[in-house]
Design a protein that fits this description.
By secondary structure, the chain is α+β, with helices and mostly antiparallel strands. Helix content is 54%, strand content 18%. It has 19 helices and 17 strands. The strands form four sheets. Strands 4-3-7-6-5 form a five-stranded antiparallel beta sheet. Strands 9-8-12-11-10 form a five-stranded antiparallel beta sheet. Strands 14-15-13-16-17 form a five-stranded mixed beta sheet, sandwiched between helices. A hairpin with a 2-residue loop joins β1 and β2. α10 packs antiparallel against α14. The longest helix is centred in the first third of the chain and has 39 residues. The chain is elongated and about 125 Å long. The two termini are 45 Å apart. The C terminus is likely disordered.
Length: 622
């Protein structure tokens, strides 16, 4: 009979954990507190069910697996979860009565305390085999200790008691292992979902009928939606003109029919205002584990700005190529003894101060002597001496290219190539125009880099630059133990502003806010950046919490003085909410610093908007 009870209890434990896994998957939007309380409630109900299925093995003593669920609640749920589970378990045991009430409550207390010890020892977020094993060993140890105490010593422990303890150990290890696997699966799912929805490009997944299944926020905003969920079920026919939508649809159906993906497919899109935008798209068919086609995944990147810059570079290159083609080259041939055999007029004209020395039969040393004596090259002093002549003469019999700055501001490129008989062919080109073009290309490259690092709308740094900067400054602050603060700024009621005044005025509003941010982040080390949409960030190296709060309040008051009208706001002007976080030992990564500022921003919006909130200063949990 006890074994049947234990089997029934094992089934009950399995059922409870399975139900929780399904519920948690459906209710993944629960907060941490809600999830812990829900986990504790479910484990508590499971413990009560196990106790209802128990059998009385001695007067007032019952056999069940409540300790398994209680331990799992403590180890994997934490204080809130085990408090809920222990309360339900204790009430049920008290209601059952009997002589074993007091030992049972002691067992519940010990399992809860030791389970929390394991929880904090291995970390709240960790889930591995060691943690599961520690959970099972803890249950077996407490059960064994209480059995020894109850029976009056180790000598009174029976084979049946040890077998029951083994079953509890096995059940707990199995339950903990399942929870461990489920946590790892949930983490993987959350990482994949975050990677898809938070990626900077346009990411989306469609079903076999080309309906959107999931998109990231960029796709939704590009189609005037505020949430990714608003895209679910739509097709390109709901978003684009019918002819364009049909082209998209036919191409996607072909991908799914042939199984051949498209990679980096460039296509233009002409907007209603006549502006042409360019996109690079990659789409791949998706198959389930059985190989059945289930849809496709796509990523699209707006490369309009890159196309414009590339075209500018190509135009500049075309100008440079034309200049190279039309310039006149000088040609000279020297024999293996270093004497000039042949040269054209362009060769002598390229070197006006040593032209008389560049005659057939002249030795290379005599030509170089004339160059040095007449100061023809600005990189050679008239007093350079014989060592320079000997070194340069030896270069004649090496295959190499060199650039020569001339006295009159010209630049010459001299290319020396050796023939099989030891003679040397020298080609001299005037590259003055090319040098000037290189300078322009360098300036263009600097301009391109600036555009790549700058948000096109607001003129401040973009998200990529911010991500690189916070990683670098965070590491520097950790090494130097210096201050680092972060402001996260969100424009209050910005959707209502766009709906009221239109997107053009919305863009103008964001430009003004960008100007305000630049006026606040004055130091060279400060970085004002567009974080995304109507969210902005200011990174403040070397600034402590009080300094960051002062700057945040200054930003808020500066925006007040700009008084941008906003009829849908209670303040009648555009305002911002600001979250402030200061680096301390409790942040292990830049992401944690950003998360703290984001939580503070959330608090500012929750408490009425148009205000500044600082992140809580309590120490981070292990």
């Amino acid at each position: 009979m006890p074994w049947q009870v234990l089997i029934g209890n094992v089934a009950a434990v399995s059922l409870v954990i399975s139900v929780w896994m399904h519920l948690h998957y459906k209710l993944y939007r629960l907060s941490k507190v809600q999830a812990e309380l829900g986990f504790g409630l479910m484990m508590g109900l499971g413990a009560v069910l196990s106790m209802l299925l128990s059998v009385e093995v001695d007067s007032g003593y019952f056999l069940d697996l409540r300790s398994t669920l209680l331990a799992v609640s403590a180890v994997y749920g934490g204080p809130l979860a085990v408090l809920m589970t222990a309360a339900l378990t204790s009430m049920q045991r008290i209601s059952m009565g009997g002589a074993g009430v007091e030992p049972a409550l002691i067992s519940i207390l010990l399992i809860s305390v030791f389970g929390l010890a394991v929880h904090f020892r291995f970390g709240r977020g960790s889930a591995d085999v060691k943690k599961a094993l520690a959970c099972a060993v803890m249950v077996a140890a407490v059960t064994l200790a209480l059995s020894i105490f109850h029976r009056g010593g180790w000598s009174h422990i029976t084979i049946v008691s040890l077998a029951v303890i083994s079953v509890k150990f096995t059940a707990t290890l199995a339950a903990a292992s399942v929870i461990t696997y489920f946590h790892a699966f949930t983490l993987e799912r959350d990482i994949l979902k975050a990677a898809l929805t938070q990626a900077p490009d346009f990411h989306y997944v469609k079903d076999r009928n080309s309906r959107f299944v999931v998109t990231n926020l960029n796709v939704a905003r590009n189609h005037d939606r505020t949430k990714s969920s608003e895209m679910v079920g739509l097709t390109d026919f709901d978003l684009y003109p019918s002819e364009m939508a049909k082209a998209f649809f036919d191409r996607e159906q072909e991908i799914m029919a042939t199984g051949e993906p498209i990679v980096d497919f460039e296509e233009p899109l002409v907007e209603e205002n006549g502006r042409e935008r360019w996109f690079v798209t990659s789409k791949i068919p998706l198959r389930n584990r059985h190989g059945d086609l289930i849809g496709l995944s796509g990523v699209t990147r707006d490369v309009t700005e890159r196309k414009r810059l590339i075209q500018q570079a190509l135009d500049s290159k075309s100008v440079l190529s034309q200049a190279m083609t039309e310039m006149s080259d000088g040609l000279a041939m020297f024999n293996s003894a270093g004497r000039l055999v042949f040269c054209n007029d362009q060769y002598r004209a390229a070197f006006p101060r040593s032209a008389d020395a560049r005659q057939p039969g002249a030795h290379i040393s005599d030509i170089l002597q004339a160059v040095m004596r007449n100061g023809e090259r600005i990189d050679v002093s008239p007093e350079a001496g014989e060592d320079w002549i000997a070194t340069e003469a030896a270069q004649l019999f090496l295959t190499h290219d060199s650039e020569i700055p001339m006295f009159d501001g010209r630049w010459l490129r001299q290319r020396t190539r050796l023939a099989a008989d030891g003679s040397a062919l020298v080609v001299v080109s005037d590259i003055t125009a090319m040098k000037h073009s290189e300078e322009r290309l360098t300036q263009l490259a600097l301009k391109m880099k600036g555009l790549a690092d700058t948000d096109a709308l607001t003129g401040i740094a973009n998200r990529r630059v911010f991500d690189e900067a916070i990683a670098e400054e965070f590491a520097r602050a950790r090494r130097a133990e210096s201050a680092l603060s972060l402001l996260l700024i969100d424009v209050d009621h910005f959707k209502a502003y766009n709906d009221t005044y239109g997107h053009l005025e919305g863009d103008n509003c964001l430009r003004v806010i960008g100007e305000v941010l630049r006026s606040i982040a004055k130091r060279p080390s400060d970085l004002a950046a567009r974080f995304g949409g109507e969210e902005f960030a200011i990174l403040l190296p070397g600034t402590d919490r009080d300094g960051a709060l002062r700057l945040a309040k200054m930003l808020r008051s500066t925006l007040h003085r700009r008084a941008i009208p906003h009829s849908e706001s209670s303040k009648a002007i555009v305002t911002v909410s600001i979250g402030v976080a200061h680096m301390s030992d409790r942040f292990a990564t830049p992401a944690e610093l950003v998360e703290a500022a984001d939580q503070a921003l959330y608090a500012a919006k929750k408490h009425g908007r148009d205000r500044v909130e600082a992140a809580a200063a309590q120490a981070r949990a292990a």
